[in-house]
Amino acid sequence: MIKIAILVSGSGSNLQALIDANLSGQIVGVISNKPEAYALKRAEKAGIATAIIEHKQYPNREAFDAVMQQQLLAWDVDLVILAGFMRILSAPFVQAWQGKMLNIHPSLLPHYKGMHTHQRVLHTGDVWHGCTVHYVTAELDAGQSLAQGVLQVNIQDDVSSLAKRVHQLEHLIYPQVVEWICNGALQHTHQGVLYRGQALQQPVQFCNF
Ligand code: GAR
Question: In this structure, which topology does domain 1-97 adopt according to CATH?
Answer without folding.
Answer: Rossmann fold (3.40.50)
